[in-house]
Design a protein that fits this description.
With 126 residues, the protein is an alpha+beta fold. The protein is 17% helix and 47% strand. An 8-stranded mixed sheet has the order 4-3-2-1-7-6-5-8. The chain is elongated, with a radius of gyration of 17 Å.
């Protein structure tokens, strides 16, 4: 069994990790880190200390009624995407350890399309 980084646990919940193939397991939010442990394989786990968290991105739909997934962007190791049954509880637990200005909404589908169209027709600087 893998030793946890946390000394006190605030929330434990079943979740899905979207890194490569979908992995099912449990997330644990504690005083020192955000941790994901796979149900089937104990060697597959994700630990993100709070010092490494750069941004927490939430995909918000229907004016905040539904949050299908959230992502944690780290300073050095990229972005990790997760989904859980009660994402609002998870984000509220994360809010204790991450500054509110580092918790943002991800772009909607139309915002991504709009940026792509603008970038396509933008003049290149010489």
């Amino acid at each position: 069994m893998v030793q946890s980084l946390n000394t006190a646990v605030d929330l434990t919940m079943t979740a899905t990790s979207f890194s490569g193939l979908n992995e099912y397991g449990k997330i644990m939010i504690g005083d020192r880190a955000f941790e994901f442990y796979n149900d089937r394989d104990q060697r597959k786990f994700i630990r993100i200390p709070w010092e490494e968290v750069d941004y927490v991105l939430a995909s918000v739909m229907f004016k905040g009624k539904w949050i299908p997934r959230y992502a944690i962007q780290t300073k050095g190791n990229g972005t990790f995407t997760f989904a859980s049954k009660e994402p609002k509880k998870v984000l509220r637990a994360i809010q204790k350890y991450v500054a509110p200005d580092h918790m943002v909404h991800s772009l909607t589908f139309w915002q991504v399309v709009k940026r792509g169209v603008k970038a396509r027709f933008r003049k290149k600087a010489k």
